């Protein structure tokens, strides 16, 4: 079983070298690959396995463990998978987030990935972006907070810290305070409580409080609910460029706040979703915001006026697709791996929104919106010129059917590449497409999607790259690639014999808790 590419991002010609070609940065499990499209070769590779910190040895008086137990504990350390990638606006730096809550910054000088810093966050980041000033990282975590970090932390580090690396240190026990339970043998009577008391008496010391993080980090804003996505937008007001932070959460909220350093000021809300909001997408050159989540509709907003322009249904196009269950992705031909249309319509969850180039009539350049629904092997395509249309119909959408569910999308020139959850030998994990408007007046809003064979030839080396199988099972890969549908809340606590009163099928959704 091969690992699919869970993240992909394109790097264009840099201002320092305008004659340089496009590069493609792809994450395959714990590995980060840099591909140059001129030669079609992988020029640099980084593996988080080499970046794992060594496990400190136990003290002499704190040991007492057998050597076998120590070896077993050390073997449980696994390489951290890459879950987010973004590139600075000047195309000089790459920011990656691994599932060990670490934010890592790389430089791209001389076509080589060089890790400059790593900063361990207290909660797992769910969204990350580099601001247009190319000096600040905006990081949102699942706990609901949004932070700003310096892109290069060397100048903000404390004296004596190791240059280039800013991590959260292991807490130390101060004074080793003795633990004294309030209960005694005279107040405890049941056998279960006596065993609990004995366990408490055996506890030697309190766990020490964590030290403050040794790198600069400023809180910009916070949500009470679990944060799902963060985007930075700009708008020209009275001849000045003003920044805004647009955030979404699990409680159906879309909040528009001012940009740093006034992010604590809330400008307004875009309210109307009935389920969680998982993805936000700004249409360049406009005040339009597209949002999607746990509903079978897309919402198009004028975010500057906080008004809803229209909704676009995804259900009819979804019913025409072959919907694969998450735990059966390796066996798409089995009958039990296809959900019923009613189930596909009910459990729809938007997992991706992207703006890609589209060729209009003649040589005119346009843009198109790509929409990915979790576990569905296809992409919904819609020209951005149709987003302003009010009272639209479902046929505005064009369906690009794929062999496997899409994971991520990146733009390269006039084309775009899409990564697929293809785990079988000989299957393409990355494909390239071009979009153009269909001819004729009757189908002026229709688009055609064509394979870009020339670009796919340059991607052959990354398609045939032999990803090392680290023993990850299909269930572990599903947990890495698919998690949007888990944001759906429970429909209320019901008794087993009364299942269906609040939830028609009596399904038990994931608990309404924020992950670390």
Automatic annotation (TrEMBL):
<comment type="similarity">
    <text>Belongs to the WD repeat TRM82 family.</text>
</comment>
<dbReference type="GO" id="GO:0005634">
    <property type="term" value="C:nucleus"/>
</dbReference>
<dbReference type="InterPro" id="IPR015943">
    <property type="entry name" value="WD40/YVTN_repeat-like_dom_sf"/>
</dbReference>
<keyword id="KW-0853">WD repeat</keyword>
<dbReference type="GO" id="GO:0005829">
    <property type="term" value="C:cytosol"/>
</dbReference>
<dbReference type="GO" id="GO:0043527">
    <property type="term" value="C:tRNA methyltransferase complex"/>
</dbReference>
<protein>
    <submittedName>
        <fullName>tRNA (Guanine-N(7)-)-methyltransferase non-catalytic subunit trm82</fullName>
    </submittedName>
</protein>
<dbReference type="Pfam" id="PF00400">
    <property type="entry name" value="WD40"/>
</dbReference>
<keyword id="KW-0539">Nucleus</keyword>
<dbReference type="InterPro" id="IPR036322">
    <property type="entry name" value="WD40_repeat_dom_sf"/>
</dbReference>
<comment type="pathway">
    <text>tRNA modification; N(7)-methylguanine-tRNA biosynthesis.</text>
</comment>
<dbReference type="InterPro" id="IPR001680">
    <property type="entry name" value="WD40_rpt"/>
</dbReference>
<feature type="repeat" description="WD">
    <location>
        <begin position="270"/>
        <end position="302"/>
    </location>
</feature>
<dbReference type="GO" id="GO:0106004">
    <property type="term" value="P:tRNA (guanine-N7)-methylation"/>
</dbReference>
<keyword id="KW-0677">Repeat</keyword>
<comment type="function">
    <text>Required for the formation of N(7)-methylguanine at position 46 (m7G46) in tRNA. In the complex, it is required to stabilize and induce conformational changes of the catalytic subunit.</text>
</comment>
<keyword id="KW-0819">tRNA processing</keyword>
<feature type="region of interest" description="Disordered">
    <location>
        <begin position="493"/>
        <end position="516"/>
    </location>
</feature>
<dbReference type="InterPro" id="IPR028884">
    <property type="entry name" value="Trm82"/>
</dbReference>
């Amino acid at each position: 079983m091969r690992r699919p590419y869970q993240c992909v991002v394109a790097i264009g010609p840099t201002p320092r070298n305008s004659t340089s070609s496009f590069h493609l940065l792809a994450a395959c499990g714990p590995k980060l690959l840099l591909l140059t499209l001129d030669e079609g070769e992988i020029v640099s590779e980084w593996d988080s396995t080499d970046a794992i910190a060594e496990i400190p040895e136990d003290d002499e008086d704190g040991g007492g463990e057998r050597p076998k137990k120590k070896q077993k504990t050390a073997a449980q350390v696994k390489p951290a998978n890459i879950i987010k990638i973004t590139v600075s606006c000047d195309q000089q730096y790459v920011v990656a987030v691994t599932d060990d809550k670490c934010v890592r910054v790389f430089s791209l000088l001389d076509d080589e990935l060089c890790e400059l810093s790593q900063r361990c966050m207290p909660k797992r980041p769910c969204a990350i972006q580099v601001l247009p000033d190319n000096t600040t990282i905006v990081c949102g975590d699942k706990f609901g907070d949004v932070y700003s970090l310096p892109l290069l932390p060397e100048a903000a580090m404390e004296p004596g810290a190791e240059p280039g690396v800013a991590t959260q240190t292991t807490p130390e026990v101060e004074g080793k305070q003795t633990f004294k339970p309030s209960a005694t043998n005279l107040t405890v009577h049941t056998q279960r409580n006596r065993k609990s008391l004995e366990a408490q008496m055996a506890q030697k010391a309190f766990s020490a409080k964590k030290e403050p993080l040794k790198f600069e980090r400023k809180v910009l804003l916070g949500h009470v609910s679990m944060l799902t996505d963060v985007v930075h937008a700009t708008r020209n007001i009275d001849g000045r460029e003003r920044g805004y932070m647009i955030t979404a959460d699990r409680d159906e909220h879309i909040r528009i706040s001012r940009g740093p350093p006034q992010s604590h000021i809330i400008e307004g809300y875009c309210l109307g979703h009935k389920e969680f909001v998982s993805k936000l997408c700004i249409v360049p050159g406009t005040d339009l915001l597209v949002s999607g989540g746990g509903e079978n509709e897309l919402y198009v907003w004028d975010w500057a006026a906080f008004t809803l322009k229209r909704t676009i249904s995804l259900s009819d196009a979804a019913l025409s697709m072959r919907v694969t269950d998450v735990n059966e992705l390796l066996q798409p031909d089995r009958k039990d791996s296809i959900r019923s249309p009613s189930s596909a319509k009910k459990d729809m969850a938007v997992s991706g929104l992207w703006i890609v180039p589209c060729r209009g009539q003649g040589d005119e350049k346009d843009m198109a919106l790509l929409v990915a629904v979790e576990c569905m092997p296809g992409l919904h395509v819609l020209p951005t010129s149709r987003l302003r249309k009010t009272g639209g119909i479902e046929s505005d959408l064009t369906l690009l059917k794929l062999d496997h569910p899409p994971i991520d999308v990146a733009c390269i020139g006039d084309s775009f590449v899409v990564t697929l959850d293809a785990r079988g030998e000989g299957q393409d994990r990355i494909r390239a497409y071009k979009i153009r408007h269909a001819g004729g007046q009757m189908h002026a809003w229709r688009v055609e999607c064509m394979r870009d064979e020339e670009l796919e030839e340059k991607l052959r080396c990354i398609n045939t790259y032999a990803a090392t199988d680290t023993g990850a099972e299909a269930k572990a890969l599903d947990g890495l690639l698919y998690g949007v549908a888990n944001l759906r809340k429970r429909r209320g606590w019901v008794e087993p014999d009364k299942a269906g009163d609040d939830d028609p099928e009596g399904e038990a959704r994931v608990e309404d808790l924020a992950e670390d």
